[in-house]
Amino acid sequence: MLWKFPEVSLAPEVIWNPGGIFPITNTLLCTWITILALVAFFYFGTRNASLIPSGFQNFVEWIVEFLVNLVNGVVGSRKDKAARFFPWVASFFIFILCANLMDVLPGIDTIGSLKGEEIAHVGGNCAPVLGFLPSCQPLSLGPIHFLFGNISNLITPWFRPPTTDLNLTVAMALLSVGATQFFGFYHLGAKEHLSKYFNFRALRKGPMGLIDVVVGLLEIISEAARIISFSFRLFGNIFAGSLVLAAFAFILPFVAAIIFIPFEIFVAVMQALIFALLTLVFMEIGTTSHEAHEEHLVEEEQKVLQGEKAAA
C-alpha cells in the first residue's frame, strides 16, 4: 500500500491557536492568503496605469470590463443602480473565483502537520513499502514529511480552499441578501419595500386579496431560503470537487489530474459567476417596484402585438 485514502473532515481543522483564544483554521489561513493575493494582483495591475493598456494592466481591465458589461446588461439604463451594484458583484465574483481556484494548486489539502497521537496507535500494522519506504514512520527531509502506507492519511492540512468552509459561504450569503434588502429600502423607500412582504391592503379587494397577502409572506420565506441555497450551493460544489480530486488521485494518480483539474477550474469559474450573477439579479428585482414591473410587462406586450400586426 503506497498510501491510504485521505480522511474527510467536513469542518475546517484548527492549525494554530495562539493564546488559546483565537483558533486559526486552515480555511481561515487560505482566506487571508486569497485576500493578499488579490491585493497584490490589483496593485501590480494598476501601479503603472496608462491610457493605452498593455500587458498585465490589459488583463485586469478586461476582467473589470467584463463585469461592468454584466452589470449593465442586467440593470439596463439605470446607471445609478449599476454604480451601486458593481462593487458587490465584482467583489463576490473575483474573491470567490480566486478562493475556488486554490483547490487545484499543489499542496492544498496535502501539506500539513502529523497527527502524533493517531500515528502512535498505528504501530502493529506496519510493513515496508516497495522494500524500503517506511509505512509507519514518515520519510523526512528537514521540516517536510512524505507519508506512505498506514500513516499516509494521518495529516492535518495547513491549506484548504476557503469556500469549503460553510462559515464563509453563509457569511457571503448573508451579505448578499442583506445588501439586496438595503438597496430595496434605499431605492423604493421603507413603505413600498415592506409592502412586498406585508401587503395587507390587498384584503380590501375581497377574498382574492388574501392571495396577495400569502404571496407576500412567502416572499419572506424565499429570502431566508436564498441564504441557504446561496451558501450550500457554493460550499457543496467546491467541497465535492475537493473529494473528487482526492478520490481519483488515490485511484488513478497523475492521470486523474489531467482529466479532473480542468473540470474543477470550470466549476470554480461557474460557481463564482453564478453567485455574482444571482446576487445582481436579486438586487435588480429587489429595487424594482410592482408598478414598474407591471409597466414593463405592458410595454413588452405592446411590442409583441405591434410585431404581430406588422407581420400580418
UniProtKB/TrEMBL annotation:
One Pfam family from the record: ATP-synt_A
Membrane topology: Multi-pass membrane protein
Keyword terms of this UniProt record: ATP synthesis, Cell membrane, CF(0), Hydrogen ion transport, Ion transport, Membrane, Transmembrane, Transmembrane helix, Transport
UniProt GO molecular function: proton-transporting ATP synthase activity, rotational mechanism
Location of the protein in the cell: Cell membrane; Membrane
Segment forming the signal sequence: none
GO biological process, one term: proton motive force-driven plasma membrane ATP synthesis
Keyword Transport: yes
Transmembrane domains' residue ranges: 20-44, 85-102, 166-188, 238-260, 265-283
Keyword match Zinc-finger: no
GO cellular component: plasma membrane; proton-transporting ATP synthase complex
InterPro entries in the record: ATP_syn_F0_a_bact/chloroplast, ATP_synth_F0_asu, ATP_synth_F0_asu_AS, F0_ATP_A_sf
PANTHER family noted in UniProt: ATP SYNTHASE SUBUNIT A, CHLOROPLASTIC (PTHR42823)
Similarity comment text for this entry: Belongs to the ATPase A chain family.
Function noted in UniProt: Key component of the proton channel; it plays a direct role in the translocation of protons across the membrane.
NCBIfam families hit by this protein: ATP_synt_6_or_A (TIGR01131)
Name of protein: ATP synthase subunit a
Species this chain originates from: Thermogemmatispora tikiterensis
Gene name for this UniProt entry: atpB
